[in-house]
TrEMBL record:
InterPro entries: Lipid/polyisoprenoid-bd_YceI (IPR007372), TTHA0802/YceI-like_sf (IPR036761). Keywords: Signal. Residues 1-20 form the signal peptide. Residues 33-186 form the Lipid/polyisoprenoid-binding YceI-like domain. Gene3D superfamilies: Lipid/polyisoprenoid-binding, YceI-like (2.40.128.110). It comes from the Bacteria. This is YceI-like domain-containing protein. Coiled coil: none annotated. It holds the Pfam family YceI.
Length: 190
């Protein structure tokens, strides 16, 4: 077999592989709430994620193979409805230096939906204060219609592990380490 024939076979196989993987873009939105505890009382807040895109790679049978997305939140828009707490939160998150909190996802579909149908877990990398943290969020209330998917997402963030230092208020009021994050996500196929 001459080298030209081998090259032609390789090109044809490569073309077949390209056709086998189909990328489909989805537009996403997310409404996020977060909550924590302190020695005085519990607290909570909300923020919207910036609109984002998610890419789903399908095989030739239409089965999802890989999912990729990057979601950003403007830390300065996090709102607890308490101006002094918001000011302390922005200071603790060093918003002028790190204005965005980002979560990125690039995972095989079987790590998200073990049964191949219903997503239950979402491994992500959370970028907070310029440092990356591996987290696994739990997915619930998954609903998929023709070109729209909705689901809820929950995970905890350890302030200590993330390098977030909140100064005590009035010396004795301290904030608990765990922040519970909940997101309601909507994806619409483009």
């Amino acid at each position: 077999m001459n080298s030209y024939l081998l090259l032609l076979i390789n090109l044809l196989l490569g073309a077949t592989l390209v056709q086998a993987d189909q990328k489909v873009l989805w537009s996403g939105t997310g409404d996020i709430t977060f909550s924590g505890t302190s020695t005085l009382h519990d607290w909570a807040g909300k923020v919207a994620a910036s609109p984002f895109s998610a890419t789903v790679v399908y095989d030739e049978s239409g089965r999802p193979q890989r999912i990729q997305a990057k979601v950003s939140v403007e830390a300065g828009k996090m709102d607890t409805a308490e101006p002094k707490r918001d000011e302390n939160m922005k200071q603790a998150l060093n918003v002028p230096i790190y204005p965005l909190i980002q979560a990125s996802l690039d995972a095989p579909a079987e790590k998200i939906a073990a049964d191949g149908k219903t997503p239950t877990r979402l491994p992500m990398t959370l970028m907070l204060l310029g440092k990356s943290h591996k987290i696994v969020a739990e997915i619930s209330d998954w609903k998929l219609s023709a070109k729209k998917a909705t689901f809820d997402l929950d995970f905890d963030v350890s302030m200590k592990a993330s390098g977030i230092s909140v100064p005590p208020v009035l010396i004795f009021i301290r904030v608990g380490d765990a922040v519970k994050v909940h997101a309601s996500v909507t994806l619409t196929q483009n």
